[in-house]
Amino acid sequence: MRFLAHRLLLFAAALFGVSVLVFVALRILPGDVAAVMAGTAATPDRIAALRVQFGLDRPLVVQYFDWVGGLLRGDLGTSALTGRAVIAQVGQRAAITFPLIVMSLAVALLIGLPLGCASVLARGRRMRGFLHVLAIVGGAVPALWSGLLLILLFSRGIGLIGLFPSQGFPSEGWHDFGRALASLVLPAVATGVVAGASITRYTRAAVGDVADGGAVDMAMACGMTRTQAVLRVGLRLATPQLVSVAGLTFAQMITGVMVVESLFALPGLGALLIGDVGNRDLIAVQSELFLLAAFFLALGLAIDLIHRALDPRLKATNANGDE
Residue 271 CB: number of other CB atoms within 10 A? Predict the structure, then answer.
């Protein structure tokens, strides 16, 4: 409980720091926020109306606490561009982005875990070298390039094998589950292949360290083959490290997916944020940036707690430290 309380306090302090940073960053932009939102051709009356509409005429401290109070109530403000609640827009776009990230992570794990274990189990020097080079080359390929290659190979209309759509998302959303899922396959593979190369390297390092230890040797002494010992014992002992790697990869995919969304014309969070920045909808951008930062922090907290739950050595270390 002491560990959990400590982590939650750090999480709350980090959220507070992020909120202040995002708020101040948009207020120190050159010129008035209302003037930036209104555009260069706006009249003084239009700028004054925007300043009153969004409370920009009040002191900065009052603006900050009004914004934070809205966040605590689930009110992220109203978009100056569309007039819709920001929370509704984010929820609609997140229903595309987060399933895409989950699918990309699944592809990355399906590629990275088997190849990483194969690198450890490979007996021939040439095979180990081939898998090592494959991981390096896969990690060096930009997601944008792999996406273009997948479009040329597997997209309907222009691809050699027309299997999946290459542009857009069904207007019915996930109500048309088959089309919605098919529209995310190519972008998920494009992102997952790149992330899978990184997971391959981490898996090879983590499982390789365990395989060189005594646990695998003891399992082999009990009658297991080396392959069985590495997969049943070594992989299980390396699981805490791999969970951390998978969580960090999930967080990194948020930025990577934004590029792929533009390539495949998916109306996700990346398109929303880029559009709001381009249209100078700074009030919406403020809440969207905070939500992304809060998600990164929450994911880090979850990884920390899961890692501790899976690795009893951390509990023992902390217990000895407390004593």
Answer: 17
